[in-house]
Amino acid sequence: MKRTRFTDEQIIGILAEHEAGAKCADLCRKHGMSEGTFCNWKAKFGGMSVSEAKRLKALEDENAKLKKLLAEQMLDLAAMKELVSKKW
């Protein structure tokens, strides 16, 4: 996964500046990012507070961990079924 230069708190701060009335182009120039990045951030973090963003990140991490565990269990199950179905 690509590393970002900005933390979630910084992103929410930039979005708050925009909501306060700053222009998108000015913010992008000031912080050194593209307008596409700003639009992606607005879609992901628009209207969130810092605590909500931290909770979202924690839930995403937990979800990834659970998906990995499920995949490992399904792989083990498939291997066991294959072993049992072989003719002796």
Automatic annotation (TrEMBL):
Pfam families named among the record's database cross-references: HTH_Tnp_1 (PF01527)
Coiled coil: 49-76
Gene Ontology terms, MF aspect: DNA binding; transposase activity
Any one GO BP annotation for this protein: DNA transposition
Domain of life from the UniProt record: Bacteria
Keywords annotated in UniProt: Coiled coil
Name of protein: Transposase
